[in-house]
Amino acid sequence: MCKLRLRKGTSLFETLLVLAILSVSIYPLAHIIYMSMPTVSHTDDEYLATLLAHHVMETIVARRAKDPSYLPSMSEACPVVASPEGNDKISEYFTDFKEYNGPVTETNDPQLYWAVKKFKCKVDTYFLDKNTFKVFVYIIYSKEGKDKKVFFERLLPVNEISSDDYEDEKEAEF
Amino acid sequence: MSDSYKKNNKFEFDGLLTYAFVLIGLVIIISCGFFCYNNFLVESNQKNVIASYNNIVTSFRQDTHQAVVAITASDSVVLLDKNADKICKYELKDNNLVRFDKNDNMSTVFKSIESLRFSISEKQPNLLTVRVFPSDKKEIPFFTSFALRGLNNDMQ
Q1: Whether pLDDT at A158 is above 50
Q2: N or C: which end of chain A has fewer CB within 10 A?
Q3: Which residue in the set B29, B50, B146 is minimally distant from A19, CB to CB?
Q4: What is the ipTM of this complex?
Q5: In 3D, which of B68, B75, B89 has the Cα closest to residue B153?
Q6: Which of B21, B39, B151 is facing A13, going by the closest CB pair?
Q7: How far, in Å, are A73, A127, B54, B57, B95 from residue B60 at the CA level?
């Protein structure tokens, strides 16, 4: 039997015991080092949601470049691809792709369809003040039973809208 | 053998139980190494794809800031500024996404691509959509758009 008692020298068992304990301590140590690294941790879903939110925000920017009076409207959370049943309304920012003649579907691009099927897009807007409009783009998805969201926000200058229009908009919002 | 070690007071082998403990110790050490590899190094490799995707975003954002027109083919795009001068060209070459600047100097933006698509909507000609499907099917695809900001500079 191995006898654990204080004595001079070190047995192989004790050496390995110490090594085993030290190796167990590597995991929390590595975890602490990993957590203290400056890079922001992204999961695949989070990153893809960020890319989709970027697509929506760039679409708004492009529409405003074409028509400076354009302001995005608020929308509920809508899917970004068409379901086979075709019941759900697709987000307006994902309905017009030239090569598909419409939205992404399971048949025209299955790889992209299954990658983004879980995501929904929601847009919130409000007037920050008379000349500034604020847009929030949310990409929402479920992970492990919990709803997660990635959002972009942007301030848009309101140049083309009259003060009367602004008051109307303000009342309508409340 | 164990007697000689006992005399030297360095190593002691007291039967099978000691060997079992030694084995358990080795198993713990190996499993800890495996968990560290699995949780941190593998995740770090996955982040390399995201870092490469960040390269695409950064590169396109810089180029589309001056771009007014994008001329697209299925797997290539040329960006032109307001003077109709070429800013750069992106294309799929040897399964890599490469960028040629206005002097035709080539740089690789993303490696190992299965397919690549650039598109411009008819309704929205100032919006370039980029799709990248990497060779590794386990990786997420790249899908986003970039507004061509060359004309309307207040939309930076």
Answers
A1: yes
A2: C
A3: B29
A4: 0.72
A5: B68
A6: B21
A7: 27, 31, 10, 5, 19
